[in-house]
Amino acid sequence: MIEIFLVITIILAAGTAFVRNINISHIMVFGYFIFLAGLGVYMAEHVGETFSEYFLSDYMGLIFMAVLIVISFSSALHYITFAKKREVRPAEAALHNAGTIFFTGAMTGVLFAAHFGVLWAFVEATTIGASILIYHNRNHESLEATWKYLFVCSIGVAIAFAGILFLGLASQEKGSIDFTYAGFKAIAPTLYPGWLKACFLLVVTGFSVKMGLVPLFNVDIDAKDAAPSQVGASLSSVLMNAGFVAIYRFYEAFSGTSILPWMNTFLLITGVASLFFAAVYALRVRNIKRLFAYSSMEHAGLVIIAFACGGIGYFAAILHLIMHSLTKSSLFFQVSQMHRIYNTKLDEGIGSYLKINPIGGLVILLGFLSIIALPPSGLFISELMMVQALITNNLWWLAVIIIGLVLVIIYGLATRMLGILFINKPNGNIYEKGATVWESVIQLALILLVFYIGLLRPQVIVDTINLAIKTLPI
Fold it and tell me: Closest Cα partner for 438 from 350, 363, 339, 326?
C-alpha cells in the first residue's frame, strides 16, 4: 500500500505542476490529502507489520502521521486565501501545490521507513520539496533563503550519510550488513561502540537542519521567514517532527548498547545549546516570523532534553511535539493575516491587533499563552514532565539553567506579543481592514485542541504514546 502511495505521490506531484487552473490545482491537493488519510487508516490497521523490508507501521510513525494530516490539510486551506489575496499566478500556484504533494509524500516516507538507507533518502527528498515551497514568493529574500537551504541541508544530509557509512563499517566486522532497524538493533550490542558513537554524532548533527537544532539551525530560521506563512507553519511543525523521527530511529536502534549514557549526554548538550541560542536571539529579533522560528528552536531543544532524560522524559518529548505542532502552526497561519493587514513583519509596525482583528488577536493571545506553557496548555504538562525527568536523574542544577533560559525566551515573546495585541504603534498603517474569519476559526480550533488535551489528557493519546516508546529502555 505505501509503495503505491509513494508512486502516486510522484505522478500526482508531476501532474499538478502543469495544471494552470488554480481551482483544479487545489482540488488535486485535497484529493491527495484524502488519499493520505486513507493511508493513515490502513497503516493503523496494520500496525506492527513490515512491508517489503523497507517500510513499517508503528505507533511512533502513526502519531506523527496524524499530526501531518491535520497540519497539511489546514495549511492547504490557508493557501487558498493566500493565493487569492496575493493574486498568485496559476503557474506559481501549480508549482506550490506540486511541491506540497511531494513534500508531504517525502515526510510520510520518513515516518514509515524501516531501513536506514531509505530513511536517509526520504529526508533528502524533504529538502527538494521544502525548497520549492520556500521559493514561492520569487523575490530576492526567498531566492537567498532557498539556495542557502538547499546548500546547507545537502551538507547536513551528507553528514548524516557519513554516519550511516559508519554503520556499514561496524557491521562488516560481524560479516553482516543489515540496515533495517530491526536487523541492526539485534546486532548493535555486539558492535564496536566507537563506530556507533561516530554514527550517532554525525546523524544528529546532519539531521539538526531538519529539526531546527544546533548546529545547523540558521537556514531553518531564514527559510521560515522568507517562505509564505503556511509553509513556515509546516517547517515548524511536521518537518520538525520528521527530523525528530529520523534521529529517534538511530537512538532506538542503539538504545540497547553501552553507548546509551553517551547518547543521552550528547543530546542534553545539543538541547541546552539550542535553548541558549534561541534565548539570545529572542531578545534581539524584531521580525515576528523569525521570533516564532526561534521559539520553534527553543521547543526543539526542550524535546531533545526531555528525550535524553529517559523514563517519563520519553513521554514528555512526544507529547510536547504534538502540542507544539498544533500551537505553532496556528500562530504562523495567523501571521499571514497580520501581514495582509499591516504589510509588515516587524513588531514596531503592528499594534492594537486585538482591537483591529478581534478573532485573529484572540488566536495570537491564546497561542502565546499556549506556547509559553501556561495552564491549561498541553505544553504545560509536557514541560512539567521534563522538569520531573531532570530531577529524577539528579540534574536539578540543569533544570535551573533550562528554566532560566526558558524565562528569557518568554520575556522576549511577551514584550513583542503583548505590544502587538494591546499597544497602538505610531508607525503602524492599516493596508487591509478585512480579516478572514474562517481562517482564524481553524486556528482557534487547533489551539483549543491543545487546551483540551492539556485539561483532559485523553486516554487514547496517553496509550498511543506509551505504546510508541515501549521499546525504549526505562
Answer: 363
Tally the C-alpha atoms within 13 A of residue 457's C-alpha that lie toward its C-beta. 15
| CA dist 194 → 171, 191, 222 (Å) | 12, 9, 35
Residue identified by cell 509503495 is 3
In a domain, 385, yes or no: yes
- Domain with 456 in it: 275-474
Measured over the CA atoms of residue 161, residue 178, residue 244 and residue 204, the dihedral's sign is negative
Q: Kindly state whether residue 395 falls inside one of the protein's structural domains.
A: yes
Report yes or no on 207 lying in a domain.
no
CB-neighbour burial class of residue 138 (10 A; exposed 0-12, middle 13-18, buried 19+): exposed
pLDDT score recorded for residue 40: 95
Contact 236, 293 (CB under 8 A): yes
**pTM for the model:** 0.96
pLDDT-derived band at 474 (thresholds 50, 70, 90) equals confident
How many independent structural domains does the chain possess?
1
Q: With CA atoms as reference, report the closest residue to 167 among 183, 147, 145, 146.
A: 183
Phi, psi of 434 (to 5 degrees): -80, 130
Cβ neighbours of 436 (radius 10 Å): 20
User: What does DSSP say about strands 50-51 and 55-56: parallel, antiparallel, or unpaired?
Assistant: antiparallel
Residue at 171 is within a domain: no
- Look at residue 10 and tell me whether its pLDDT is greater than 90: yes
